[in-house]
Amino acid sequence: MTDTSGANKERNLEIARNEEAKQVAGSVRVSVSAIVAVVIVGGILFTLGWLALR
After folding, report:
1. Is 51 helix (H, G, I), strand (E, B) or coil?
2. Is the pTM of this model over 0.70?
3. Distances (CA, A) of 28 to 41, 47, 48
4. How confident is the model at residue 4 (pLDDT cuts 50, 70, 90)?
5. Measured between alpha carbons, how far apart are the two ends of the chain, in Å?
């Protein structure tokens, strides 16, 4: 019984590590998408402002 309990604990730890890695990857993906969106919107606003001053 102890052997299966230890195996289950190890399996649960591995699952937890995998879930943590997925969450980190998802957070990085969201952050990169947000930065790209800000750069695009900023570029559009800069271009519109520059054209308005011409």
Report:
1. helix
2. no
3. 20, 29, 30
4. confident
5. 80
